[in-house]
Amino acid sequence: MYVAGFADELNEVWGTLIPLDAEMVEQAVLGHQTFTAWCNSDGRIQPQPSSDSLFEELLEKGHLKETPLDELVVEAIEQGRNEPNDDILDMFETLHERLVRAVGVVADEIARRRR
After folding, report:
1. 22 — phi, psi (to 5°)?
2. Strand runs (DSSP E) across 1-114, as ranges?
3. Residue 83 DSSP one-character state
């Protein structure tokens, strides 16, 4: 729960304090943040806020859910399963090309580290 109100120079509160729902405040604040996707070296994907301090805070609160890459792919396929081929086939082919490219990059890095 958050509280909004006024305080003077001595930090003494005056006027009416207004309680604010924590979820509503956090959504308003996070609505103005930019996030990217972060891929950990073991294939877990998680949101990455642009602010390091916000990242640490959200991580401590457990708000940065990690999802394994393979689970994201399964979910994408499930969401498109009933779409007509004209609408989704090109997207699945692009997904496949990107995954093949990613597998190649990982294989190259493994080989480099084993030398």
Report:
1. -60, -45
2. 2-7, 13-20, 35-39, 44-49, 67-68
3. S
- Distance, CA of 81 to CA of 54 (rounded, Å): 36
Model pTM score: 0.65
Token pair for 76: 């994408």
pLDDT digits (tens, 9 = 90+) for 88-109: 999 999 999 999 999 999 999 9
Tokens representing residue 30 in the block: 């996070």
Residue whose tokens read 């090109």: 90
The pairing of strands 44-49 and 67-68 is: antiparallel
Average pLDDT over residues 42-59: 86
pLDDT confidence bin for 45, thresholds 50/70/90: very high
The alpha carbon of 108 is separated from its chain's Cα centroid by a whole number of angstroms, namely 27
